[in-house]
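thread from #wetlab-drylab

HS: before we spend reagent money on co-crystallization trials with iron/sulfur cluster, can we at least see a predicted complex? here's what I'd submit
DV: go for it
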Amino acid sequence: MRTLTPMQIYMLLPKTNCGECGFPTCLSFAFNVASGKANIFACPYLSEEAKRKLSEALAPPIKLVTIGVGEAAVKVGGEKVMHRHEDKFYNPTAMAFAVSDTLSDEELKEQVKTIENTRFERLEEVLKPDLIALKGTSGDPKRFAQAAKVTVENTSLPLILCSFNSEVIESGLKICGSKRPLIYAANKDNLEVMAELAVKYKCPLTIREPKNLDALAELVKKAKDIGVEDIILDVGFKDLKETLRKLVTIRRLAIEEGAREYGYPSIAFPSLAVFKSDSLADFWEVTVAASLLVRYASIVVLSGTKPWRILPLLVLRQGIFRDPRIHPRVKPGLYAIGSVSENSPCLVTSNYALTYFTVKSDIEASKVPSYLLVIDTEGLSVASSVAGGKFTAEKIAEAIKEYKVEEKVKHRTIIIPGLAARISGKLEELTNWKVIVGPRDSSELRTFLRKIFP
Ligand code: SF4
């Protein structure tokens, strides 16, 4: 990976220690830029020469490409490492559903609405598709333009305009070119005209070369010479093993060898791996999509619009693109679960998101409305935070006061997790509350709560 040392960055800074970047000295700013914690452009006094040198040297080896405009714009690429534990992955694989211009306007509208309304909530994040790929299957520029019109009128999601026919693509660009759709795709036969369209409409361009990576690099070079800046790579799909090998290779060449011609995000179509006649086609497409998502596809396009197909992929993506240095967590506080009253039991747990949501659903399953006091354990589970001194009697006592638990319930009883049994005595001493040690596993809360609060 190309990097600059803090001293190399420092040498290009003004060295006035003015502090306007939010750091007291230019040197501390340089250290923070080098470790990725500060943006070099937070210094307003960089010379033009320094700006040029630094943006070149600090640019991620996989270029950041934006599709769409405004709030719905999708960013792909911008990656710096092969493996998540080396830093983190920055921009999640964008998930797209494909629709075809051979549908009637009404059918198309319905499918677009289905995609637009597909959303799930998990760990306090909304998971949803990011893009719609409009396929110019009709080959008719007029029909494609009308389909593009219907699509943009019914979605805020950015589009991928799909056709190898430049007239079809231009008809779509005339409708929605100002919304910066991704053009799919240029190949060896149409590269020049597609590249000119990408430059004219200022849109990112996909370059497809399924035969070999050298030929792909040649096409990238030609497109750049024509003036295309934002490129997405498509290595085609012969079989899954070969496609994964190519995706890993281009990522490695870009990140480890600094090969600029491969330093772009990639797109993949898992539907090419399945026979539509196969009764398990849907299942295989999702399985192949998961493999492509894990091994570096920046955009994955699914056929069809059934929401269940995208859910496992979005959950997988959420896990992979989460910063491994930060534990998923919920906000500490007092949560009411069900129709609580002043007699409802009060339980306590950690703010590790998975613990919170598991305990919450186990309380819901018990059908005993309860208060759940969530302690700030910096995202650690109960077992780890008890061992690490972050789930303590002192913290629970403070939280009881901070979140005014005494005003919510008239009893003075708190239920702590079985894994925290050893702090029960100290907690009673600090709070004068009766402390009940609950089950070690929250799945037992259902019977536990019903026994105490029948
Ligand atoms: Fe140095 Fe620029 Fe930061 Fe001022 S704003 S301290 S000149 S890096």
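DV: Residues 13-14, 16-21, 23, 26, 29, 43, 45 surround iron/sulfur cluster (CB under 6 Å).
HS: ok that's useful, forwarding to the group
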